[in-house]
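Milestone M4 deliverable, item 7.
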Amino acid sequence: MDRQPTNDVLLLPTSDTSDGFRPKGTPLRGGVFVLANTLLGAGMLGLPAAFADCGYAVGLALLVFFASLGALGLTLLAYAADRAGRPASIYSVAEAALPGLGVLLDAAIAIKCFGVATSYLIVVGDTLPDAVRAFGGGGLLLERRLWTLVAVCFAGVLAFFKRISALRYTALAALACVLAITVMVVLFALNDAGVIDAPALDPCGQPANATAANGTDPHDCEGPTAWATDGMATLRALPIFVFAYTCHQNVISTTNEMAQPTRGRIARMTTTAVGTALAVYIALACSGYATFGSKVASDILSSYPPASPLVGVARVMIALVVTCCYPLQAHPSRLSLGSILKKVLGPARAPSDAALHWGITAAFVGASTAIALVVDDLGVVLKVVGATGSTIVSYILPGSCYFLLYREPHTLRWAALALLVAGAVIMPLSLTLIFLPA
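Output delivered:
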C-alpha cells in the first residue's frame, strides 16, 4: 500500500542547512504572515453588509463553515504538492494529478490574480482621496490617479521579489493595519452600545443626546438587526463568505520555502492563518453590523462620518493593506504565466528563468497600472473572475489533485472529494447570483 508520511517527516531535502539541524527556509510564522495577508484584504470591509443580508447566527455559521473548507483546501493542496514532488508548482501538481490540466489551471490563476491585483490599485485610488478630505486636504491630493501611481511605486518594486517569503515583513505590517482597523470598528460599536463614552467614536457623527431641528432621531444611520433573514438574502451574501478565505494560490510557494516542512508544521501554518482571518472577520462583521444594522454600507468605512480623522486614518491603513497584498497576487500570476510560456514555447525557445521573471513582472505591473488608471470600477467582470478563479483555486484544484494523487482509501481522500463537489456547486451558484436581478 502507498503509505503517507507521518506528521514529523521532512518533506524537503535536509542537506541545505544553516545551523546544522534544520533546512534553510522561512520560519512557520513567516508563512502565516504571508497567507494571512493574502486572505485579509479590502474584501473584509464588506462582511458587516453580508451579516445584514443573513443575520448574526447565519453569518457566524457561514464564516466558520467556509473557514473550515478554506483550511482543508490549503492543507490538501500542500499535501498534493508533497506527492507531486518538491519544489512544486501549480503546474507540476496539476500535471501529476491529470496530465494536460496544468496549463488550464495556470491560466485560471494568472487571470484571477491579475484581476485582483488590478482591483487593489483601484481601491487605493478610490480610498485615499476620501482620507485626504477627512484631513482637510484638497487640490491634486484628491486625484485618484496620483495615489494609484504612488501605490505602484511601492507595490511594483515588491512584485519583483523572487521569493514569496521575502514579503513576510510587509505582510506583518499589513496585518498590524488590519488589527488597527478592526479595533476601530469594535470601539465604534462599544461606544454606540454605551460601554464607553467617546464623542469622537459616535458612528453617526452626532452627540449621543442630540435631537434634530425637526424632532427626528439624528441616529437614523442605524437600522434593526436580526439573527437570521430570508433565504434569498442569505444566498446573495454567500459569495462574500465563499471568497473570504482564498489564499491557496500562494500555499505551494510558501511551503516550498518553509523551514522544517513537516506535515504537522504545514497544518499548523494553514490553520493559524485561516484562524487569524476568522477571528478578524468575526470581530469586524459583528461589530459593524451591531453598529449600523440593516443600514450598514457595502464598505463599512463608508458608514462612518466622512469627516472623521479616525476614519481617515483607517482609510490610509486599508490602502496600505491592499498595496502590500498586490505583490502577493503578482507572485503566483508570474509563476503561472512563466509555466504557460515554457509549455507553449518549449525548452529550446523559452527564455531563461531570469528573463521570464523580469519580463512577466514588468508586463504584470504595467498592464495592471494602465487599467487602474483608466478604469475606476471593474464591476461584473471582476465578480465573474472571482467566482470562477477563486472557486477553482480554493475548492476544485485542492480537491481534485489530492483525490487523484492519493488513491489509497482514507478519510482525507473522501474529504477532498467532498471539497471538489462543493466547488462544482459553488461556481455555478455564484455566477447565477452575480447576474440574478436584485
